[in-house]
Design a protein that fits this description.
Radius of gyration: 19 Å
Number of domains: 2
Strand content: 15-25%
Distance between the termini: 36 Å
Mean pLDDT: 95
CATH architecture of the largest domain: 3-Layer(aba) Sandwich
CATH class of the largest domain: Alpha Beta
Helix content: 40-55%
Low-confidence stretches: none
CATH topology of the largest domain: Rossmann fold
Order of helices and strands: EHEHEEHEEHEHEHEHEHEHEHH
CATH superfamily of the largest domain: Leucine Dehydrogenase, chain A, domain 1
Strand order of the largest sheet: 2-1-3-5-6-4
Shape: globular
Length: about 290
């Protein structure tokens, strides 16, 4: 059997962990496959996608998760709503776009034992927040409060989440408020705080998107930032006795979900948890803790 070929496109790709993750997943599944990085300048995106029709599938990262969509033959419903594609499946030359960010988010939560998300506080309104907010809604959230630096910019996400809830027959209250209002509203309690902002990411690792007083009002805290593995937000949550959910779980979970779309046999939950630990060790080995 010939070796399967996969790739990641983006620009710039820098120190991507994707080859490490996918190579480990291929090995766990006993599949002979290669995974390469293709750093693609914007003007070369159409040509690169045409060339990738010869591959078995590929991933997309910043800044092409939306830009790639017109060059695909089909985009599934979830990716269309999120306005983002991170995985493409090639079926006899026909390219279909999917998103596995939500799958990774749910895996990270489940791995940490988080089951309650009726009341969600979502920080930020960008692409990551859209994926996680939509996933939380579909998973049964009853209330999603979006904290945004510029609330007017979050209105499209509020509208889309409300539309999604109505289309699925779900009852979920969705509203946006400034970060300052989150800080001063001592009465609100949340099952889950979700950080979809880059605050706390290397090299600005001293940052934390909300104060300790907000964290105290949350039962569990998820940080999509995976570098460093221990952000100030998560360290504070742990010190306060909250369930802290690390972003590396989402990264590994979305990679595993992508491989299932490519027809690769799924790995066990235990193997995926072990991969999360390996990934943190490898990231620190390569780039130093909190770098990469």
């Amino acid at each position: 059997m010939s070796e399967k070929r996969f790739a990641l496109i983006g620009h710039p790709l820098g120190h991507s962990m994707s080859p490490f993750l996918h190579d480990r997943l291929f090995a766990a599944a006993g599949v002979s496959a290669s995974y390469e990085l293709i750093d693609t300048a914007p003007e070369h995106l159409p040509e690169t996608v045409r060339r990738l029709r010869e591959y078995d599938g590929f991933n997309i990262t910043i800044p092409y998760k939306e830009a790639v969509m017109p060059f695909l033959d089909e985009v599934d419903e979830k990716a269309s709503f999120f306005g983002s594609v991170n995985t493409v499946r090639n079926e006899n030359g026909r390219l279909t776009g999917h998103t596995t960010d939500g799958d990774g988010f749910l895996f990270a939560l489940a791995a940490a034992g988080v089951t309650a998300m009726d009341r969600v506080l979502l920080l930020g309104s960008g692409g990551a927040s859209r994926a996680m907010g939509g996933t939380a809604l579909l998973a049964g959230a009853k209330s999603i409060r979006i904290a945004a630096r510029h609330p007017e910019r979050a209105e499209p996400l509020v509208r889309d989440l409300r539309t999604l809830a109505a289309s699925k027959g779900l009852r979920c209250t969705v509203e946006v408020l400034p970060f300052a209002a989150v800080e001063t509203d001592d009465g609100s309690r949340f099952d889950l705080l979700v950080n979809g902002t880059p605050v706390g990411m290397h090299p600005h690792t001293e940052g934390c998107p909300v104060s300790e007083s907000v964290i105290r009002r949350c039962t569990a805290v998820f940080d999509a930032v995976y570098n460093p593995d221990e952000t100030v937000l998560l360290k504070t949550a742990e010190q306060l006795g909250k369930t802290a959910v690390h972003g590396i779980g989402m990264l590994c979970g979305q990679a595993a979900a992508a491989q299932e779309l490519w027809g690769i046999p799924p790995c066990s939950r235990g193997a995926l948890l072990a991969l999360c630990r390996e990934a943190v060790t490898e990231m620190n080995r390569r780039f130093g803790e909190g770098q990469g």
